[in-house]
Design brief:
Shape: globular
Strand content: under 5%
CATH topology: Arc Repressor Mutant, subunit A
Number of helices: 6
CATH architecture: Orthogonal Bundle
Keywords: DNA-binding, Transcription, Transcription regulation
InterPro entries: Sig_transdc_resp-reg_C-effctor, Tscrpt_reg_LuxR_C, WH-like_DNA-bd_sf
Distance between the termini: 51 Å
GO molecular function: DNA binding
Number of domains: 1
Domain HTH luxR-type: 5-70
Organism: Streptomyces liliiviolaceus
CATH superfamily: Winged helix-like DNA-binding domain superfamily/Winged helix DNA-binding domain
Radius of gyration: 18 Å
Length: 97
């Protein structure tokens, strides 16, 4: 993690950091609101504050920030169950075709 990102994250409150954790796990605004016992509007407010404090330009940038806060990208992908690739059938030999 870069020094610039570390400095920006020092400005983020504990509740804002909690929202980032939920975002990294793929939760919707409604799910985050229920888990944190706040309204979806409050979740949106937290996210706007995080963007202002960190300079995140859009939702994708915010997601990348959330993933860096939550840990490595691979651990987040693993938590979402996306790491396991489906088994593909064997490819028929082209020489026989």
């Amino acid at each position: 993690m870069s020094d610039k990102l570390r400095e920006a994250l020092r400005k983020v409150s504990d509740r804002e950091r909690e929202v980032l954790g939920h975002i990294a796990r793929g939760a919707t605004y409604g799910e985050i609101a229920r888990r944190m016992n706040v309204s979806p509007h409050t979740v949106d407010t937290y996210l706007r504050r995080i963007r202002a404090k960190t300079g995140a330009r859009n939702r994708m940038h915010l997601l990348l920030l959330a993933l860096s806060v939550e840990g490595s990208l691979m651990s987040a992908i693993e938590d979402m169950g996306l790491l396991t690739m489906p088994q593909l059938p064997d490819r028929p030999d082209r020489a026989q075709a």
